Amino acid sequence: MSKAIPGESPAPIPSNWSVIVQADLAASDIGQHLRQRGVKVKRAESVLSGSIIFPRCKVAFMVLELSRHLLAQFLDWHNESTAKDGEKHCPDQGTDMDVNAPGACKDKRDVTGHDEDDDAYRTMITRVDKFTRIHRDCYILLQAPLFTERELAFLYQLQTRYMNMMSVDILICHNAEECVSAMMTISNLQTPPTSDKLHQRFCYLMNELVEPLSIEELAQIDQCEGGGF
């Protein structure tokens, strides 16, 4: 009987899987790494830019590359906001506050700290908003070679925007290979039989917290699972 190895990676996704990838992304390094993993890449023009969909496990990913242009605009806002922080205080606004009321804040920047007139940001955030509305289980992959204070500040503001959305998770990746590894791992964990085994183990764990299992029951569980994935 084989034994589970701590930290062992899940089994790879079967090579007969098909993944829907946005056309431009399919021709990039991400599409190449997917093909190297034996995944069939289907190009699609109709999906949102940066989108990768795994139909079998019903999970979708969006890759956002933190370009120099976008980060430069974010840094400009951050410096300007810091400079004005001691000059004028804008009160917190709830969703029911009238922005036209006297004393209301007129700053056009939203919760992520960007100017809504910024075309690059507006395009990006509109795309992400639409992506999160379409897919019930989705992940945002922020890709940057190095995550300095500037990139982490951008990450924090994006997390703040989608904090109340349980269906969205945000991950950071340094390159295309890390993006593909993250997508393959998440998709595999959410696909039978791996997902079924994880569910069973979670149920056993919850039952054990309430009533400890006997040695015979633990042995039976290990025998049924084959000692691992």
From TrEMBL:
Lineage top rank: taxon: Eukaryota
GO cellular component, one term: chromosome
GO terms for biological process, alphabetical: reciprocal meiotic recombination; synaptonemal complex assembly
InterPro entries, alphabetized: SCRE (IPR027857)
Organism in which the protein naturally occurs: Elysia chlorotica (Eastern emerald elysia)
Descriptive protein name: Uncharacterized protein
